[in-house]
Specification:
The protein has eight helices and six strands. The protein is of the alpha+beta class. It has a six-stranded antiparallel sheet with strand order 1-2-6-5-4-3. It is globular, with a radius of gyration of 18 Å.
Length: about 220
């Protein structure tokens, strides 16, 4: 279980090292964790939408903090759940959001990515060769009552930039695991649980020497 006090101490140290928020994505969250979301709000979403959140993620957002500091551009707050599912406000927004919410109830279905498919999923060939077992593509299930989508059973948690994101599986045999996605049906495994995923982020912040080297690398990159 994560302690908010411990997390905030690590975030405070990271703000001291990267005071200008120069590391990739840091300006978006500024190493600050949002306040926890009320348990009642989470329960209301689960009851109305028909899914349950993986226990470790649920515990984190209701006890440690909801949204903010995290990998890349940070973690989106679950408290904005009812606003998710469509990219703009217009007369079609709620229609698309209802479809997206229904998709979360269905099982997340993926299969291993084949070598000949790697280019279609924006997969780095060198990375694929090292760990082909970490790469997958969405397997379109049969569904008569509604067109399935690659978001079936997959809840996006954050933005990695360049069209990529990362999220957690809500339903299916890989429930609770985290994957990176290109939002077009390609997925790369990240962690077996939210706790493992976020612990990796905190460990990166705790290694202050490595964090300083990473910051210097970014500064050097933009001085070229």
């Amino acid at each position: 279980m994560f302690s908010r006090d411990r997390i905030e101490k690590l975030l405070e140290k990271a703000r001291e090292i990267d005071s200008g928020f120069e590391l990739f994505g840091a300006k978006a969250h500024q190493y600050r964790l949002g306040p926890p979301v009320p348990e009642e709000f989470v329960r209301d979403v689960e009851e109305k939408c028909g899914f349950t959140l993986p226990e470790d993620y649920r515990r984190f957002i209701t006890r440690a903090g909801d949204g903010g500091a995290g990998p890349d551009y940070g973690i989106a707050p679950f408290g904005e759940f009812w606003k998710k599912g469509y990219f703009q406000e217009d007369q079609f927004a709620e229609h698309h959001r209802r479809g997206w919410r229904r998709s979360l109830v269905r099982p997340f279905s993926i299969r291993p990515l084949l070598w000949e498919e790697r280019d279609s999923c924006m997969c780095d060939p060198e990375v694929y060769e090292m760990h082909p077992e970490h790469f997958f593509v969405w397997e379109r299930p049969e569904n008569e009552w509604e067109t399935p989508r690659s978001t079936d059973g997959f809840f996006c948690l954050g933005d990695k930039g360049c069209g990529w994101g990362y999220g957690i599986v809500l339903n299916g045999e890989k429930r609770g695991q985290l994957f990176t996605t290109d939002h077009e049906g390609g997925f790369a495994w990240e962690a077996y649980s939210f706790d493992e995923f976020y612990r990796g982020y905190l460990e990166r912040l705790a290694d202050t020497k490595a964090l300083q080297r990473e910051l210097e690398w970014w500064r050097g990159r933009f001085k070229r």
